[in-house]
Specification:
alpha+beta, 463 residues, elongated, 21 strands, 10 helices, nine-stranded mixed β-sheet, 23% helix
């Protein structure tokens, strides 16, 4: 059975369809904050587990409100059997989100008068890289065929085929799916490809009354690895956020029809960002998106699931990975470990690599559905931003302390410029906030550094 054209952000109806920190061979600071998907409005989360032509997709809804108004419409190639559809624990997706979230970490400078430790620190520093409603036309009158009908958990699921988009949309709207105006062309394009539609609504008699809906999972086989997103743009009020968490046994996942770009990472940022990390990350992501003309898929995390450095959350256990559809893991795991947050060594018996991708899209910037490929690249990457707390002692205690103070001012200047470059914020505003927090030349009793002349000014003696 094939089921490749699944949609990431198309729940319809009322639902929203720098400088590197000092590092040696291991992380030695403290993780202090993360930027998870809750920072963004209209965010959809999709987990894709891929191995060969086998895929398990988990579609998490950010729907909040009256569950009777919820509807999901998903284009599919073939008709899934009942056993291929499952309802998952939403905590699984939340855990994966927390584990892969971009993070803020902090370090504390040591006393520069301890020359031995100071030199060791300097040597280690360096860049790191349904029920039919009355009065509604029968489906056959509109050219719509109900190919299959399932009850899965709290959901009633139908698989529909249709002769034309108008008839399908009329039937869907008449049965409470509230397809927005303008969807005919996109729906028609899927129908011309011979595709069918997976539609789901909540059965109130089987629902537990909670406001949060559980993710729907579908297992399928197909050689194509793609994720339709075009339907999600029809009823969108502006741009939407899509987070794709892809788990493979080979390595990273990347888009093939859009640029996959790593977000800037391992940058030193001013200390005050600790209290504004959410605002910083949203501004940074928006600014980087604009620099790519809104047409890039951004990588926020890529790491072997066996470990993390630093950890924004515990790695997922083998049982959690299996629940998400990691079909290649063995049933027995005598070595399973539940680690504590922090810097963790590699753990045995976890053969899974996770890639976190973030897309901000609309119909103009992403006119095509997303297509992916699994690569053999297992190089670790994470969105990571660094706070470096200065040593606050007597800067006249020794010559090294005075040199350290002068270096601090240069470092703070670089941090300010890095933050401005990352976010597009005004440099003067950044420096004013830093000075208000005690991070300026005056706070350490040294002079402001002279402006650095450009190479051409130095070349010809101008300026």
């Amino acid at each position: 059975m094939k089921l490749n054209h699944l949609i990431g952000a198309c729940t319809l109806g009322l639902a929203s369809l720098a400088l590197s920190a000092p590092m040696a061979s291991a992380f030695c600071g403290f993780y202090v904050a993360k930027a998870d998907t809750d920072l963004f409005n209209d965010a959809s989360k999709v987990v894709l587990v891929r191995d060969g032509d086998r895929t398990v997709i988990t579609m998490a809804s950010d729907f909040r409100g009256d569950v009777s108004e919820f509807a999901m419409v998903v284009p599919v190639v073939d008709i899934p059997e009942r056993e291929q559809i499952h309802v998952a624990n939403p905590a699984l997706v939340d855990h994966l989100d927390e584990y892969t979230a971009p993070r803020l970490v902090e370090y504390y400078d040591e006393n520069p008068c301890d020359l031995r430790r100071y030199r060791e620190m300097a040597m280690s520093a360096g860049p790191q890289p349904m029920v039919m409603e009355d009065g509604v036309a029968e489906p056959e009158e509109l050219g719509v065929t109900i190919e299959a009908e399932y009850e899965v958990g709290e959901y009633d699921i139908l698989i529909l085929s249709a002769e034309e988009s108008d008839g399908l949309i009329t039937w869907l709207n008449g049965n409470g799916y509230k397809i927005p105006d303008g969807a005919e062309e996109i729906v028609g394009s899927y129908l011309r490809q011979g595709m069918k539609f997976f539609v789901a609504k909540v059965n109130l008699e089987r629902h537990d009354g909670s406001a949060m809906l559980r993710p729907i999972q579908v297992a399928y086989e197909d050689e194509d690895f793609m994720l339709p997103i075009r339907l999600g743009t029809v009823n969108a009020d502006g741009k939407q956020e899509l987070f794709v968490f892809a788990i493979t046994r080979q390595g990273r996942v990347e888009a093939t029809n859009y640029r996959t770009v790593k977000l800037p990472s391992n940058m030193d940022v001013p200390i005050y960002v600790k209290d504004e990390f959410g605002e910083f990350y949203k501004a940074m992501f928006g600014h980087q998106t604009d620099k790519e003309n809104g047409k890039a898929v951004f990588m926020e995390y890529a790491w072997d699931m066996a470990w993390c450095d630093p950890c924004a959350a515990n790695p997922l256990s083998l049982s959690e990975l299996r629940e998400l559809g990691v079909m290649w893991l063995g049933e027995d795991n005598p070595n399973e470990i539940r680690p504590m947050p922090g810097r963790l060594p590699p753990q045995p018996a976890v053969d899974a690599f996770v890639t976190r991708l973030h897309v901000r899209y609309d119909a103009q910037s992403f006119p095509e559905d997303l297509t992916f490929q699994v690569t053999g690249d297992r190089e670790n990457y994470q969105g990571r931003y660094v706070l470096r707390h200065p040593w606050r002692g007597d800067y006249g205690e020794c010559d090294a302390a005075g040199e350290y103070a002068e270096g601090l001012v240069e470092r703070w200047d670089t941090e300010a410029k890095s933050l401005a470059k990352l976010t597009g914020w005004e440099l003067a505003d950044i420096k004013a906030k830093m000075a208000a927090g005690g991070y300026s030349a005056a706070s350490v009793g040294v002079s402001e550094p002279k402006p650095t002349r450009s190479w051409w000014q130095r070349l010809w003696g101008n300026g």
